[in-house]
Hints:
The chain contains seven helices and eight strands; from the N terminus they run H-H-E-H-E-H-E-E-H-E-H-E-E-E-H. It is an alpha+beta fold. It has two domains: 2-85, Rossmann fold (3-Layer(aba) Sandwich); 105-169. Strands 6-7-5-8 form a four-stranded antiparallel beta sheet. It has a two-stranded parallel sheet with strand order 1-2. A hairpin with a 2-residue loop joins strand 3 (87-92) and strand 4 (95-101). It is elongated. The model is unreliable at 173-182 (pLDDT under 50).
Amino acid sequence: MRLIKEFDLPDNKKVGDFSKGMKMKFMIAIALSHKPELIILDEPTSGLDPVARDELLDILAEYIEDEKRGVLFSTHITADVERIADYVTILHNGKVWFTGLKDELMEKYAIIKGAAEDVPTALMEKMIGFHNYRNGFDALIAVDDLAGIPSSLEYEKATIDEILVYIAKEGKHERHSENYKV
């Protein structure tokens, strides 16, 4: 009953009459009532409005605060991952593409942009998900591979969402070999 109050759930309403966000909070309350060390969730915030999503992420963040408990969830909503995750695993074509600290992933990659003719061949081979546009190109690249890039090229830190998009583009719009080292 404590969690029902804490999650602002009505105690005089049938669960079937709850909104989707209320139902998700109710399921989390039930799961937490057993005091598990690990909760496994599949797309927990999918379909929730922004307020319900925020509330649910607050609940999960508070739950894992003591670092003796964990939450494992799969999601395509990368903003949730960026907000709450400590560790991430990215699967691509059924294989682990990256696993490790979220902050390491986000520090490891950048988005590089510019005119395609300004890209040295050696640099081209290190790019992931290269896409040539009418007015230039963009691609994902390991930050370690940015040393010595031409000043005509720009780069910026990659978000998890961008990393996922570029690895999905890998092999589709590229103009170079498929030999990538990640």
